[in-house]
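Hi V.,

You were right to ask for the full record rather than a summary. Here it is.
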Amino acid sequence: MARKTTKPKRTKPKSLAKTKARLKAANKGTAAKVKPPKVQARADAKALHGDMPQWKPAEVEEAFRRFQAAMPEPKGELIHINPFTLLVAVVLSAQATDAGVNKATPALFKLADTPEKMAKLGEDRVRELIKTIGLYRNKAKNVIALSEKLIAEHGGKVPGTREELQELPGVGRKTANVVLNIAFGQPTMAVDTHIFRIGNRTGLAPGKDPLAVELKLLEVIPEKYMMHAHHWLILHGRYTCLARRPLCEKCIIADLCKWPGKTTLMAAPAAT
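Predicted structure:
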């Protein structure tokens, strides 16, 4: 009786299977190897101390050329109607997310879109309308106080200088810079946690405090990009250069970045 022979099962070579897996991961944007948290933490500490290679002027120019090409007209994400509501929204955004503020302000601004209406609304009502925002009690107090000060000293108008803005309750340098940039078209640099992180992490503008980073950015960024630079950097920090897990594989300036913790040496294709 003839012995039956069975054909060996065909199996895909392991190398081919691995290649396909990598391609699948790359298509999902997850191909870059994430470095351990301790490695990233050491890299961030090194960056914070200014121990980073300095960017050359041509590299800074190229980075902002790419930002501009990717987003020619960037916009702030806080909902507002006029300079006053912008001022209030920025004050409310301190230690809170723009998304969280945007959930509360439409109802508030429907009732009060001027200092006069806000002051008339009163602290208790404002507190009730913004209670979903962190530190809402103190913020409600500041919103009413700044509204009254605008009425008493500025004819109900938002002033257009940093000095006058910073005299208002709840308004610091960062808030003043945002209002000056968006409402008055001034090329200011409002350094929040995102820009502070990017300035130090990338080596673009290292500094031990927000003011140091702000002054360095004003020094190195070409004047033609300054009007929108603050928006580009905030959005880059908010959606790409994240604090815990930076998306280096999606970063359009990855090849220029000096951070030793980055996961790729190549810029995302969108940069071209």
